[in-house]
Design goal:
The chain is mostly helical. It has helices at residues 2-23, 29-55, 63-74, 81-93, 104-107, 109-113, 122-125, 132-135, 138-145, 149-166, 170-200, 220-225, 232-237, 253-263, 275-308.
Length: 309
C-alpha cells in the first residue's frame, strides 16, 4: 500500500508545481531568487543533514543541532530521517548488486531514478535495523513519524507572508499560491530529480576514478547542481569522508557548509579520505597515462613500419 501512496504523492506534487508555474503570477527575478534560495536550503537539508550526517556520520555535532538537521532534512519531502538513512545504508551495503533497491545496473535507468519509490518490493528491503543508532534517539523517532510537519510549517509561513502583504482575499490567495509554488513546490521537485540523478546518472555516465565494485561515476555538472554530491565514485570509494570532492578543483558546496558549521562550533570530528588513498590514486592515474602513451607510441611505430613496407 505504501508504494501506491508514494506514487500518488510524487505525481500530485509534480502536478501542483506545474499548475503553479502555469496559473500563478510570475514576478521574474524575485521568484527566480526565491526558487534558488529555497532550493539551496532544501538541498543542503538532503546533502549535509540526511546524507553526510545521518547516513554516514561524516562529522559529529551536539544533540540539539542534530535535531535541527533532522528537521531540516524533512523539508525535502523525501521521507523522515530514519527512512532516508535506512534506504541509503541498504544501497551502500548492496550497491549495484541484485538486492540494491535502486540499482541502475540490474533494473535500468528509470527504476534507479524514481521507479524504485513506486516499487512494492523495495519497501520490504528497507529495514530499520540499518538505523539502530538513530532508533535510540526518541526525538528523531518522533520526527520521523511526523516528517510532513516541517514542510507544512514552511508552507504556512509562505502563505502567511502572502496574506499579510495582500490581505485575506483573492489577491492574497494568489500571492500565497505564488510564494508556495516558487518557494516550495518547484524547489522540492527540482531537489527530487537532482537527488534521484545521483542514483541514476552517476551510475551510468562519467569517469570512474577508483576501481569500485559498483558502477559509481564522477559527474562534474551534478557536482555543482547536487551541491557536491556528483563526485559519486569518490564517495563510494571512501563513504565516510565529509568531503566528496577529494581535490581542490572538485567543487563541493556541502563540504564548505560543514566547514562553516565547524567554524561556528556546530561540527567536529570531520572524517576525511586518507592521504595514502589519494596518493595511490595519483600514482595509478600516472601509470594509466604512461600505459596509454606506450600504446600510442607502439601503434605509431607499427603504422610507420607498415607504410615503409
Amino acid at each position: 500500500m505504501k508504494h501506491i501512496i508514494v506514487k500518488f504523492f510524487i505525481y500530485f506534487i509534480h502536478l501542483l508545481a506545474l499548475s503553479g508555474i502555469i496559473f500563478c503570477n510570475f514576478d521574474g527575478w524575485s521568484d527566480i531568487g526565491l526558487f534558488l534560495i529555497s532550493y539551496i536550503i532544501i538541498g543542503f537539508g538532503v546533502t549535509v543533514a540526511y546524507h553526510r550526517y545521518f547516513a554516514h556520520h561524516s562529522f559529529r555535532t551536539n544533540r540539539l543541532f542534530q535535531f535541527i538537521m533532522a528537521f531540516w532534512g524533512c523539508m525535502s519531502l523525501q521521507g523522515g530521517p530514519l527512512f532516508w538513512t535506512a534506504a541509503h545504508r541498504h544501497h551502500h551495503k548492496h550497491s549495484d548488486e541484485v538486492d540494491d533497491i535502486h540499482s541502475a545496473r540490474h533494473r535500468g535507468f528509470w527504476h534507479a531514478h524514481m521507479g524504485w519509490l513506486c516499487d512494492k518490493e523495495v519497501y520490504k528491503h528497507i529495514d530499520y535495523r540499518y538505523v539502530k543508532d538513530l532508533m535510540k534517539l526518541p526525538e528523531i523517532v518522533l520526527l520521523d513519524n511526523v516528517h510532513l510537519l516541517p514542510p507544512a510549517l514552511y508552507i504556512a509561513i509562505l502563505m502567511t507572508i502572502g496574506f499579510v502583504s495582500d490581505g485575506f482575499n483573492a489577491v492574497g490567495w494568489g500571492h500565497a499560491a505564488q510564494l508556495v509554488t516558487w518557494g516550495f513546490l518547484v524547489p522540492v521537485v527540482f531537489t527530487w530529480h537532482i537527488t534521484w540523478s545521483i542514483n541514476s546518472v552517476t551510475h551510468f555516465w562519467g569517469p570512474k576514478r577508483f576501481n569500485t565494485k559498483d558502477d559509481s561515476r564522477n559527474v562534474w555538472w551534478l557536482g555543482l547542481l547536487a551541491l557536491g554530491e556528483g563526485w559519486h565514485n569518490n564517495h563510494h570509494r571512501y563513504q565516510i569522508s565529509v568531503r566528496h570532492g577529494f581535490y581542490w578543483y572538485e567543487i563541493d558546496f556541502s563540504y564548505y557548509v560543514i566547514l562553516l558549521f565547524k567554524c561556528l562550533g556546530l561540527a567536529h570530528r570531520l572524517q576525511y579520505a586518507p592521504q595514502k588513498l589519494l596518493k595511490q590514486q595519483k600514482i595509478a592515474k600516472l601509470e594509466r597515462l604512461l600505459e596509454k602513451l606506450k600504446e600510442e607510441t607502439t601503434g605509431k611505430k607499427s603504422r610507420m613500419q607498415t607504410t615503409s613496407q
